[in-house]
Structure formats: C-alpha cells, structure tokens
Amino acid sequence: MRNNLGPALAVGALLVLGTGLVLALFWAPEDADQGFSQRIFYVHVPIALTAYACFGWGAWKALRLLWTREARYDLESYTAIHMGTIFGVLVLVTGSIWAKVSWGIWWSWSERQLVLFLVLFLFYSAYFMLRYSTDPGPRRANMSAVYALFGVVLIPVSFLAIRLAENFIHPVVFTRDGPQMAGSMFFVFCVCLAGMLLLAAALYQAELAGKRLDARVRELREALA
Amino acid sequence: MSGYLGDVAALARTSLLLELRQRDTVPAMVLFVVSALVVFRFSLPADASDLAALGLLWIAIVFTAILALTRAFVAERDQRVLDGLVLATADRSAIWLGKVAGVLAFLVLAELVALPAFALFFAPIGWETVAAVALANVGIAAVGTLLAAMAAASRARELLLPLLFLPLVIPVVVGGVGASVEPDPGRYLAFLGLYDLIFAILAWASFDYVVAE
Amino acid sequence: MIRARGLERRFGDKRVLAGLDLDVAAGGFVAVTGPNGSGKSTLLALLAGLLAPTGGELEIEARRNEVGYLAHEPLVYRELSALENLELYGRLYRVPERRERIGMLLERYGLWPVRHERVSAYSRGMAQRLALCRTLLHDPSLVLLDEPYSALDADGARLLDAELAALTGERTLVVSTHDPDRVRPLATQAVSLA
Description:
Helix content of chain B: over 70%
Number of strands of chain C: 8
Structural class of chain B: mainly alpha
Distance between the termini of chain B: 29 Å
Radius of gyration of chain C: 16 Å
Distance between the termini of chain C: 24 Å
Order of helices and strands of chain B: HHHHHHHHH
Shape of chain C: globular
Helix content of chain C: 25-40%
Largest sheet of chain C: 5 strands, parallel
Number of helices of chain B: 9
Strand order of the largest sheet of chain C: 5-6-7-3-8
Structural class of chain C: alpha/beta
Strand content of chain C: 25-35%
Oligomer: heterotrimer
C-alpha cells in the first residue's frame, strides 16, 4: 500500500494543480481593480495555507513523538516542517512579486501575511539551526518536538501581535480588497488549494521515503560490517 | 514546605544564591545597560520623538534579557550539574521554575537601573511602561529559560540562544512598545498577559522533555 | 534488579553499545571493564536513566530516586559549599533526617572541616569525595559508580574500599573501572566491553 501512495500523490498533485493553474491563468474572471496581477492570489494564498498545514502536521507528529517516544515521529515531524519552511519561503517570494507588480515595491510592512511569514521563517530557520547544532539522538528529537509545538502556538500569537503593531509601525498605506470572491473565483481558489496540498503531501512522502531508505542502507551497512 | 513547591523553593534559592555569588556580574550588567542607553542616545537624530526612544528602551531590555539567558545554565552545563538535578528531581519543571526565579531577579535588577536611566537620558516613563516591563519579564523569563536549556544541550550555545529567542520575543516587543506608546495601553497589556499565560504553561509543561531523554 | 536485552546506544552514526545482554540480581556487584571509548560511561548513564536506549530493552526495578549515580564530573555547583550542595540534593531527594545524614557522610569522608568552603576551592580528590556523598546521600538501592577510583587519592580510595565492602550484598552495585583487581574480590559478576 505504501509503495503506491507516493506516485499516486504525485500524479494527483500534477493533475489537480495543473488544472488549477490553467484555470487561474485563463478561466477565472479578471479582477476589476488589479487586473491580471491579481491572479497571483490563486498561487500565493494556497501556498500560505499549505505552509500552515505543514507546520500543523509537523506539530502533530511532534506531539506524537513526545507522547509515545517512538523515533519515527521525529523524522516525520522534521520532514513536515521542512516542507512548511519551503512553502513559507515561496509565500515570501510570491508575496513579494505580487507587491512589486501591484504597487511597485518589493516589501510592505502593512501586509500582515508577509510579515507573519517573515517571523515564521526566522522561527523555523532556527529550528534547523537547533537540529544542526545538536547531536542526533533522543535528546535532539525531544527538543525539536517541543520547539515545533512552540512554533504552532506562535502562529496565532504572532498574527495577533502584527495586527496590534499596525497602529504604531506604520499607518496602512496600501489597501487590498478582501476577497469578496465571485463563485467562480472561489472555485478556482479551491482547486488550487487542493492542488497545493496534494503537492505538499507528495513532496512529504517523497522526502520521507528517501530518508527512510537512507536509514535502512545505513542499518544494512552496519549489519554487514 | 513540602513536595513540589518545596523543590521549587530550594531550586529558586540556589538560583538566586548563584547569581549573588558571581560578584562580577551585577556591576557589569549595570554598566552594560547604561552604556547601551548612551549608545542609543547617540544613534537617534536630534528631532527624534519620544516614541522612537521608547522603542529603543525595549531593544535594550531584549538584549539585556539575552545576556541574562546566556548565563542562565552556565553553571549547570559546565559541571553537568543539570544531570544531577534531572536525576534528583521528581518533577523537572521545578528546575525550570527555580531558574525562572533567578532570571527574573536578574532582569528586575537590570531594569531598576535601566528605567531611571532612560527617564534621565530620554523621556519620562509612565506607569504603563512599568506595567508592560513587568509583564514582559514574565514571558521573557518563561520562554527564555526553556530555550536556554535547549541551547545549553547543543554545540553552538551562545549563537543558538539569540536565534531561538528573537522570533519568540517579537510579540513581547510589540506588546511592550504598544503599551508604552499608544493612548490605549490596556489592549497591549492584555496581550502581554495572554502571551505570558500561554507560553509559561507551554514551557512549564515541556521543560521535562528538553532536559531528559 | 537490572535486565537488558540487546541494549544499544548510538550517537549519530556511531554505535557505542551494541546488543548488550545483562542480568543483575538485587544485591549483586557488577564490575564493568573495557578500554577507553568502549562504552562504560554510556552503559552507566543508560542504567541511571540519563540516556535512553536507541535500541533493545532495559528494565530496572528501581525508581529514579532509588538510584545513585557517580559520573566523571562531580555534578555539584562549584560556587556553592559542600553543605549547600548536599542540602539541595537532600531536599530534592526528600532524604529523611537530612541534617544528620549529611553531617554523617561529610564526617565519614573527611569533608566536615571544609563543609562551608566553596567546591571551587577543593582539590580533585575532595570534589570526588563530595560526589560520593552526593551519590550515597539518599541511601540508594542501586549504586552506579563510573570509574570512582580515578580521581581519589590513597586515603579516599581506602574510604571507598570500605564503603563498597559495606554496601556489598546490601545494595546493588555497578562499578566501572580501569583497575579490575581492586574490585575483583567483591564483585559477583564482570562485564567486559570490548
């Protein structure tokens, strides 16, 4: 069963995401205010939501690790957070592109989503620093898990903080209409979201399988030595 | 006092004793805080507002906190005393609580110097700032102590602690500066209280997993 | 008292202990020998509960506060006195009649005259004796000593000989050592890590 999951997810991701992107580029109605550039929204927001999902999945696996002490959850938690960080970087990149196209600047502190992902990027980068500078073993697994839990709690707390900070950091200069989406826009959005989630799942499976294979090879090498 | 609270009291006493015994750190810390504020004074343009200055106060507090936290587990780590405590304590969160007491004492001492110095160099401070600092101390000590224990177990200690700490302290800075600066400090103080509650509970519950296998 | 099957501990890619089987009855005395780097300290840390096995099983019929552990480092605060250190450990271990017990141990190991001095002023031998006091403070049923003779001077070694002789049969002992001859007369079993 496990052997089929990876390829199935990959194919599914390709199909759904491909469809979604095509729909987003050609079929979805043009936005009155922002024109063509608004279409980045169909990529940018699903990537953000997928990143949240990855961090949440990583935190869940972390909780499982602390609960059961089974080593495999460490790898699963790490992989999920790795995925989340990659998608997080993509949020920053697509958000930046969108800002440049829409308003001519590469960054805006009044963009809550962007600022939040900047903070999260810093936080989860420190996660990898923590793992990198600690010797592998139960201790590192435990600490990573605790840190992953802190991360998932930080997401809403940071979001609240950023909202509160807007009052004194900078008055909101640029506005963007919240998506009062037409039905067709919402449909395309959902397709893209599903596609992104499938993509994340496919990459997660792939990386996990690869790492497990590495571990098996090492075990076999030792058994032979 | 028996049981868990007795353990916490004994560990807190030890923590404070250790702070006091390192005689060089108190004057060094006072000097650091005052020097930092002077540097900030030179870094602000002449017409800078009081609000900008208050922002710098919070920067000073964050970096003093990093100093305090970098030192937090030095004694335990060097002598591997932490292993002894981990074996001896029934509930390891008592170690965390005891350490938090030590860190808080250091922070309060630093701020007893920093706040009047700030009022002298820059602008007077209202009750909201003091309240915000008090609330921030709790959050910083709670989260920072846990992270300091993590960093102590790694190879890159001094570098790792600020990396782990700074993203988590951003909400504290927002709450603190907001309370100091905004006309309605209540929201920000409440936010700081929320941060303290959530992260203190999380740190208290997860400390055991950070120091033991 | 102790039961290990296929006990394994790795650090990263390095496997320090591999597939160790061990059975120790209550009251037994195990001498652990082996060259440097063979895993003696790792084994003791595993038995103490400081390290978790990365493979295999380990069962110990003693609660955490019934285990006494002597490591390479004394595990005491250098900036506190012997008395303050033992007070803290005595409190944490809930030692009954703490004061008396601490006084008795400090006397026995010749540290009573220096009980108020900071550990940073002690010699290596004195610190090791304090570590022994710390290890035995709570009258553990399982005593784990990691190369206890290595830092002791002749007097201290004699005290330890007497202590081990007194404990043999009464408590379970696991002692790792470079000098097996020292403990051979008392040991009931030997484990050699090669």
